[in-house]
């Protein structure tokens, strides 16, 4: 009968077990307090998805604007060549040829 614990020892073991369980529950509750509820997570995720979609639209709009700007620059260069440079060369080249011919 020496192997069997006394009633006092059993009482202390039960109290220690209750204390351990109480500590474990307190740790679990502390972790749960830091967690986000499913509803809040869903709302935040939906907001994030909307923000990403809005940013994607903004990037697409900027890319389209950049393409339009590049096309406008190309058209301006073509206009300069066709409207200014070619007629100017058409006027200056005969003058140069005429002056060279007169000087010879």
Shape: rod-shaped
Low-pLDDT sequence parts: none
Oligomeric state of this protein: single chain
Q: How large is the share of residues in beta strands?
A: under 5%
Please characterize this protein's 3D structure.
The chain is mainly α. Helices cover 90% and strands 0% of the residues.
Chart the SSEs and their pairings.
Elements: H1 7-34, H2 38-103
Short key terms for the protein model shown above:
104 residues, 90% helix, single chain, mainly alpha
Q: What is the gist of this entry?
A:
With 104 residues, this protein is mainly α. The chain is built from two helices and no strands.
